[in-house]
Design a protein that fits this description.
By secondary structure, the protein is mostly helical. It contains 6 helices and no strands. It has one domain.
């Protein structure tokens, strides 16, 4: 069953990655006139990392012998949410003189609000894996997710450019630190 689901989540998450890479490509093409904002670029990198890490983590589900519709729907909706987060960062079409800083602050409540929902879903997805004996709950998981939820909730309401600069870099470092302290790197081993 997982092979069937794996195709669907691969397509949906792949579309999220494609959207991010297309956005970056357009920024490069329009580099003479587009006003790039480094915090926005950092969030592009963060979301790309987020999708790849979650996609990789979905492999644990391959050990589940039987699936029900709720589990199938739950994992599918999680991948759809990750696509939506990626889609928030770049409008489908933007002019050559697009200003990403203003755009980032306009979409900020939605972008971080969707991340809050994604982290809440991740809590259940991770505990499902532990409940089904697919993976132990990592020791630092609760602290890590609580930190990410607090960061995203604050970012959803804050207009502070200094906070958003901090948040973009902190998010990246926190995810890499968490990955380094868990068994995620050995998932397929």
């Amino acid at each position: 069953m997982f092979e069937y689901l794996g195709v669907l989540i691969s397509v949906v998450m792949g579309l999220g990655i494609t959207h991010l890479l297309t956005g970056i490509s357009k920024v490069v093409q329009y580099r003479e006139t587009t006003r790039v904002y480094w915090v926005h670029i950092m969030w592009t990198v963060n979301v790309l990392l987020y999708i790849v890490v979650i996609w990789w983590g979905m492999f644990w589900w391959s050990s589940l012998p039987e699936w029900n519709f709720f589990q199938f729907l739950f994992v599918t909706l999680y991948s759809i949410l990750l696509f939506l987060i990626a889609a928030m960062l770049y409008p489908w079409d933007f002019p050559h003189d697009f200003e990403f800083e203003a755009y980032f602050y306009r979409i900020r409540p939605w972008f971080f609000g969707l991340q809050v929902v994604a982290w809440l879903i991740d809590i259940r997805e991770t505990t499902f894996k532990a409940d089904f004996g697919l993976r132990d709950l990592p020791e630092l998981y609760i602290l890590f997710v609580a930190t990410m939820l607090a960061l995203c909730l604050t970012a959803a309401v804050s207009r502070s450019k200094a906070f958003h600069a901090f948040a973009a870099v902190f998010w990246f470092c926190a995810v890499l630190g968490y990955l380094g302290s868990t068994t995620l790197a050995r998932i397929a081993g």
